[in-house]
Structures are given as C-alpha cells and as structure tokens.
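[step 3/7] inverse_fold.run input=structure_tokens len=273
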C-alpha cells in the first residue's frame, strides 16, 4: 500500500504513527506516552539502554503485547481497533527479523524462508522458487535443502532475513539485527538491510543498542529514555548532536542525565558497590 497525503495538512501521511503509547508491568512504567512517526520508505532505528522498553515497544506495534493506552496507526488506520482476524490480514504486509533468527528446527531452510507464502496457500513449487530467489539475494543459494541445525549463526541470521522479505512486505521490523554476530558478519547484515531499503523502498523500523549498525541502516535515530522517545535525529547527526542524554548514550558514559531514572539508578548502584 502506498502512503497518502493528509487532506487537512497537505503533508505526506506517515506509514507508521505511534500516539500516546503506554505500557506498565506490575505498576512499573516501561513506556509512557511514546509518540513518533515514520514516513513511507523511511528507515528509523530506536536506540536505548537494555531494559528501557525497546522490545516492548516493538511487541506492542506487532500486536504481541497489548498497550495500556495509545494508538498505533498504519497508513492512518488504528491497528489497535482491529478485530483479531483483521489484524492477521494486515500482518501480511509485515516482515520481522527476530533477534535469534527464530527458525523452525523441523523445516528445511527453503520451507522456513517460504513459510508465510505456504501459509497463504501459495503453491509449493512457486513458494520454493521464491525462497531460492531470496536466498540467493542474501548470498546463500546452496543451503535451501539444509536443516537449521546445519547453519552457522551468521547463516541462520541471513536465512532469517530471507524469510523476512520472501513475501515482499512493505514494512519490516528488525529486533537487534546484529546481536550475537562477529564484526564482519554484522557488517554483512547491515549492508543487506541497507540494500533492502535502497532496492525496495520498504519502510523499516529497527531496535538496537549497536550504534554502528544504527548509523549505517537508518535515516533517523530515536533515543528511547525514561519510557519516552526523548529525541530523534538524522543518523548523520547522531555523534554531533548536543543533547545531554543522547551524548551520554553515544559516548557510553556510566554517569550523566540518563541516570535520573530507574535504569540509571541501577547503574549508579552498580558503580557504588
């Protein structure tokens, strides 16, 4: 689906718009009034400390967690107001690369890659041909008949990426795409994500604490801090931006304004021990 133009403002309608999103667990605030937009074809990465709610945010957008408040708009449609069946239909537009690749152990590589197509009733031969096509795209043309247990970590991640794009989604989510990979394989994955964005114009939302990856794959980078999106900057301004919280995170300093939060207090407690 193509993004439209807002008839009231004359501006391009966001592909994804998060409004007032909040999520609490047992009285603990994880997300509080989170708000940001992603335009069609834009690549945005959310960064932040471990435990600040990046994965919770992604799970809320995907419908794996129900937020306590807020709206998740995709092309202006509030996905939180959809029925379960309507939501499942909309999810056909979505591709998701999980942190650990999340391949099915009992299925061959090509069956993993074409899983969404097979679930949609696409003929087995057609699905297999498409799977081999995207495996070639990630540089793994000769692994289609292997089982996941026969793959290295880097190969499994690339198979996961192939599965993510096999059904030609127009929105793709990445959960820590380089976690657990060596520097060279991390660069391979980053370059594949950049090529996907360049070749297809797909809208991308990633979460990571890998700054090198964030800078490489993103148009814009958002800092999630104290349960909110604190700041959004163009990726090429990440290291020059003067915002104190963003600077502390980018420079990797244990002490700074981020510490005025439950997560920051844990850091200070660890330092003081």
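[step 3/7] decode complete -> sequence:
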């Amino acid at each position: 689906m193509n993004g439209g133009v807002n008839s009231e403002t004359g501006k391009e309608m966001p592909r994804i718009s998060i409004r007032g999103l909040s999520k609490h667990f047992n009285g603990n605030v994880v997300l509080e009034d989170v708000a940001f937009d992603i335009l069609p074809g834009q690549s945005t990465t959310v960064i932040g400390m471990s435990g600040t709610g990046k994965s919770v945010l992604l799970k809320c957008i995907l419908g794996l967690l129900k937020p306590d408040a807020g709206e998740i708009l995709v092309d202006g449609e509030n996905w939180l107001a959809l029925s379960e069946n309507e939501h499942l239909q909309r999810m056909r537009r979505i591709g998701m690369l999980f942190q650990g690749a999340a391949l099915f152990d009992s299925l061959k590589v090509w069956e993993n890659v074409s899983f969404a197509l097979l679930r949609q009733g696409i003929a087995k031969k057609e699905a297999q041909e498409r799977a081999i096509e995207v495996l070639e795209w990630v540089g793994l043309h000769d692994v289609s008949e292997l089982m996941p247990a026969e793959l290295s970590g880097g190969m499994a991640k690339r198979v996961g990426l192939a599965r993510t794009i096999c059904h030609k989604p127009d929105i793709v989510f990445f959960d820590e795409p380089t976690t657990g990979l060596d520097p060279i394989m991390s660069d391979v994955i980053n370059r594949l994500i950049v090529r996907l964005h360049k070749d297809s114009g797909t809208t991308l939302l990633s979460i990571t604490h890998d700054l090198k990856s964030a800078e490489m794959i993103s148009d814009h980078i958002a800092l999630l801090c104290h349960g909110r999106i604190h700041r959004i900057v163009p990726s090429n301004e990440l290291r020059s931006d003067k915002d104190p919280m963003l600077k502390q995170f980018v420079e990797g300093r244990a002490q700074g304004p981020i510490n005025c939060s439950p997560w920051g207090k844990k850091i200070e407690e660890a330092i003081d021990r």
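[step 4/7] annotate
The two ends are 54 Å apart (CA to CA).
The longest helix spans residues 183-200.
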